[in-house]
Amino acid sequence: MAAENPLVEIDRLDPILSRVTEGITIQEPSGRLVYANPAGLALIGFTELEELLDAAPGEVLDRFQLLHEDGTPLERDELPGRRALLGEVSPPIVLRFRVKATGEERYAVVRSEPILDADGRVTQVVNTFHDVTDEKQASQALRFLSDAGAVLSASLDYEETLRNLARLAVPVFADWCAIDVLDDEGGVQRVGIHHSDTAKLAFAEEFRSRFPPNPDAPTGVYSVMQTGRAMLAAEVTDEQLAASPDAARYGPEYVELMRQLGIRSAIVAPLLAGERVIGAITLVISESKRSYGPRDLSVAELLGARAGLAVQNSRLYREAADAVTLRDRFLQVAAHELLTPVTIVRGYAQSLERLVERQREAAPGSTTINLEAARLGRTVRQVDRASERLTQLVGDLLDVTRLHSGSLVPVPRPMNLSAVVRSTLEGVNVQQTEGRYATNVDLSFDLPEDGDIVGTWDETRIEQVLFNVLDNALKYSSDGDAVNLRLWLDGDEARIDISDTGLGIPADQLEAIFQPFHRTRDANVRAAGMGMGLAVCREIVNRHGGWIRASSPGSEQGSTFSIGLPGASLSAAMVGVEPA
Amino acid sequence: MHQAHTVLVVDDEPAVREMLEDVLSSEGHEVMTAPDGAAALDALRGGTSRPCMILLDLMMPRMNGWDFAEELRRDEQLRDIPFVIIAANPRFASDAPRLGARSWLGKPLQLDDLLNTVDELCAG
Lengths: 580, 124
Known about the structure:
The complex is a heterodimer of chains A (580) and B (124).
Chain A: H1 6-17, E1 23-27, E2 33-36, H2 38-44, H3 49-54, H4 59-62, E3 64-67, H5 80-85, E4 93-99, E5 105-116, E6 122-131, H6 133-154, H7 158-169, E7 176-182, E8 188-195, H8 198-210, H9 221-227, E9 231-233, H10 238-243, H11 245-250, H12 252-261, E10 265-273, E11 276-285, H13 294-362, H14 367-405, E12 413-416, H15 417-433, E13 442-446, E14 452-457, H16 459-475, E15 482-490, E16 493-500, H17 533-543, E17 547-551, E18 559-566, E19 569-571
Parallel strand pairs in A: 13-15
Antiparallel strand pairs in A: 1-2, 1-6, 3-4, 4-5, 5-6, 7-8, 7-11, 9-10, 10-11, 12-14, 14-19, 15-16, 16-18, 17-18
Helix pairs in contact in A: 6-7, 6-13, 7-13, 13-14, 14-17, 15-16, 16-17
Chain B: E1 6-10, H1 14-26, E2 30-34, H2 37-46, E3 53-56, H3 65-74, E4 83-87, H4 95-99, E5 103-106, H5 111-123
Helix pairs in contact in B: 2-3
């Protein structure tokens, strides 16, 4: 019977169990280990079975720090083997254990089952260990890389990103993590360093300032940046440190401080943007006493490639943003600087036109003078027309800069919208009498009669929008057309419809006209500029939390621009609200 | 030809002052100029001739247009002189009534508007 002489049974089974890749151990009821196959021996750090059999009780477990899978301490009584000794069958657990002597950390799925005799007493416990360290590390590496991916895409500030990456690497992937980037002068700039212990961090920084990395060293950050190839130092020994070129360069104090840093294993991987090396990431194992292996090297290489790309992207973004800022500043300065000469050219051109006209009037009989004056008049009119166009363009340019510079941010104050509508209509009326538009366009309006619509908006900006839309409506109208402005209160929304019976807008253009630089397809429209007007209007209205839309039944059937402004109410008294 | 009037031009840009002086002179007007609000006040208080209107730029060093308008309003001798704001930014158009300006003319100026405004204000 097996139960009476288990060791004989084991001897017979050993040739079979020796060929099993899972670790198998057998305990007697006292808990003492009486057998381990070679895989089991290796797992618990023995080479010979005799060695194990001679070990004092408890000594085997003393070699390990036992942990749950999540890293929290595991009590010995929680081991499935302990439970099995009591005759219990418990589910397998993932055991994480650290070999105290080497610091190496491993994972195994542990399953234990009691063998019972006829009376139900435990005669032996069979433990099987399925080593899942590789799988575990692989999935940790994957998770780390995926977390790193999230960190790398979280911000466009690459210095901040790299600092966060260094923080992420500790302690899951390294005890130390430092990230250096190449600056414009080819120097190395440390952008991130992390260690869970701040005292160590300060020590490392001091160390680095006393012994700056040697650009000519065959290993380390500089070398990796030069070759673009990652470097793995699986085991760093004191002897290696003492024999390193830097030891010869910096002397015994360097060696001693290096030893205090406690570097056990290290990887330096390049930060790659395509083929270009833009920095390096240094990963160091010290306290956790693990060693990096080829898989860690691959992870570090992937990390370096991703981080490099992120740095590259953020630099490109920064360059693009800088270019945009520069462009906006240029536009702003250019527009303002252009304004003065344009004002002067325009002033003189108009003046000259009048002078020529007067000269002609002064000498009605003289054919010579008349011919000269006519030619001069034509010339001056061309100059005046060109300067008028220039004026329009400068105005648009100013609008573009306002659109981009954020100077369209409204400064809302209590205002009377009805009053602003009335004054804008008056202004447009004046422009009409002065010939800006076709003279026979009927301009009418409907305002609420039971009170004025008031709200808190930016009066100047709203006036600008109203003028712009009215101006458009009139510009696109010909003699016989009509333009109507209707203002009313819809709930707490002020609504304005500006309708015309003019050219109309094709359906596919109803949204496009609000885009910056939109060019009208109609060549007949006067004074077409850069097409900024409606884009500016929409920006202003949107910034008030409102909306502006265009609708049109079709070509030659007129169009309506509708505006909604939130936060409106009807003030009973028809009193203008003065801006505060 | 218009009736001759005296106009004060207040603008910090010399080329703009010169242009306005030339243009208004060629229409037969007398033109006084000042590069900023303080100089304009000096010219008004110390000068022999009194303009019938003022063309006022807003953005100027030393004393800007807003402060000048304020000073003008406080001065019993000068407060009756009508003034018109000339500015590039339409943003300032709404400041005109608050400052006591009769109207606002955008830069670049429309000469007809300018001459009509001068005639209108100086005739009244």
